[in-house]
Amino acid sequence: MKRIKITYLLIVFLGVAYSSAFAQSEKPNIIYIISDDQGWTDFGFMGHPQIETPNIDRLAKESLTFTRGYVTAPLCSPSLATLITGLYPQQTKITGNDPLFESKERRYSPEWQLERSKEYQIFLNEFQKRPTIPQTLGKAGYLSLQTGKWWGKSWKDAGFTHGMTHGNAATGGRHGDAGLAIGREGMKPIYDFIQLAGKEEKPFMVWYAPFLPHSPHTPPDSLLQKYLPKAPSEAIAKYWAMCEWLDLTVGELMNFLKENSLDKNTMVVFVVDNGWIQNPDQTNQFMPGSKQDPADFGIRTPIMFHWPGRIAPKVDTTHLVSSVDIPTTTLAVTGLEGVTPMEGINVLDQAALETRKSIYAVDFSHDMVDVHAPEKSLEHRVIISGDWKLILAEPEKGIAVQLYQIKKDPFEKINVANQNPEVVKKLTQELEDWWERTSK
């Protein structure tokens, strides 16, 4: 009888141990790939006739890919703040790239950077009251790595367990500093971190936000020579080459996962932080209607979720998906859904996708005016609902209401607001209700 009892207890113990090990192995690794300053059409799979992105094309084919994806803001800092919190810019309090302040120093000079850092700390203090994805995953045993673009000072300030960005204004810290080497100077920090996580037998999260295709547009000469004969100007050739350079790094990363048998237990997410239209006459410069603008070339992006065997590949050209959904979906697949308040939906939940009717975006000034009153920086509010896209400019801008049938008119050529007053009224009310709820 005693032997039976001991055997039973041993079985129970082994069963618990096995269950714990199984649960640990079932926690997927997470990788965010965040392109920086790229137009939503500037991929092979999105129909660009010249830019070659075979690795991202393959990723799109093997992923649940939403071609009607949008970020919450057409500027990198607030856009990234959404990606790490699952909240809108008016909620994170990070609505722009820099604080607005008076200075006698030349903008972006070392002296100005130090002044900026002190002013920015006020915004950072508010931002840090919101839980981040690395912080939440850390409580569940994850290691996390920050690389590339990051505005919230150091990786530690965002809750990562490891990182590259130091955020020290005295030595150039503003939007990524040492982290901006990733991709442009190889991928070794990511590979080293993943191997470290393996040795410690812990699931991991990687924030891969390379300074690509972001300016300075300094592509490898082999890529530049490839595009010079195809492009209408050297400035455009350089930008196209930068897009392919990003693609090459994505291919390296995906190959590393496969070679190390990590692809089957890793969810890879792809998104662009904000859009871009290259100025044909000036290298490193964008055109109006893209970055810092609520037009689709400022806020639209393909959004992908890749997890072999767990997420069925599909190119979804119908449903509206927002970057605010990425953190919610991340916590859902890691078993942490609902742990912290977020605004997005789990895009793997078909019912949630079908129920959603609208998504939203906001455009604030580049420089933030008042951390306690985000509306002082507000320039535009946007709602996309079905085939309609409404853009409301703040009154002082003196811009008429803009309404587009965005599926028929993806490049926003024809403003149909005057012909559809009832649609304008309905969407305006919905937008006002959303703004009131999220800006309290």
List the helices and strands and how they pair.
Elements: H1 2-26, E1 29-35, H2 54-61, E2 64-70, H3 76-85, H4 89-92, E3 98-99, H5 110-127, H6 133-139, E4 143-148, E5 162-163, H7 188-199, E6 204-209, H8 221-227, H9 234-259, E7 266-272, H10 296-299, E8 300-306, E9 314-316, E10 321-322, H11 325-333, H12 350-355, E11 358-364, E12 367-368, E13 378-385, E14 388-393, E15 402-405, H13 421-438
Parallel strand pairs: 1-6, 1-7, 2-9, 2-10, 3-12, 4-5, 4-6
Antiparallel strand pairs: 2-8, 7-8, 11-13, 13-14, 14-15
CATH architecture identity: 3-Layer(aba) Sandwich
- The backbone outline, from C-alpha atoms, is globular
| Order of helical and strand elements | HEHEHHEHHEEHEHHEHEEEHHEEEEEH
Number of helices: 13
CATH topology: Alkaline Phosphatase, subunit A
**Domain module count:** 1
What does this structure look like?
With 440 residues, this protein is an alpha/beta fold. It has a single domain (28-357), classed as Alkaline Phosphatase, subunit A (3-Layer(aba) Sandwich). 35% of the residues lie in helices and 17% in strands. The chain has helices at residues 2-26, 54-61, 76-85, 89-92, 110-127, 133-139, 188-199, 221-227, 234-259, 296-299, 325-333, 350-355, 421-438, and strands spanning 29-35, 64-70, 98-99, 143-148, 162-163, 204-209, 266-272, 300-306, 314-316, 321-322, 358-364, 367-368, 378-385, 388-393, 402-405. Strands 1, 2, 4, 5, 6, 7, 8, 9 and 10 form a 9-stranded mixed β-sheet that branches. Strand 13 (378-385) and strand 14 (388-393) form a beta hairpin. It starts with a helix and ends with a helix.
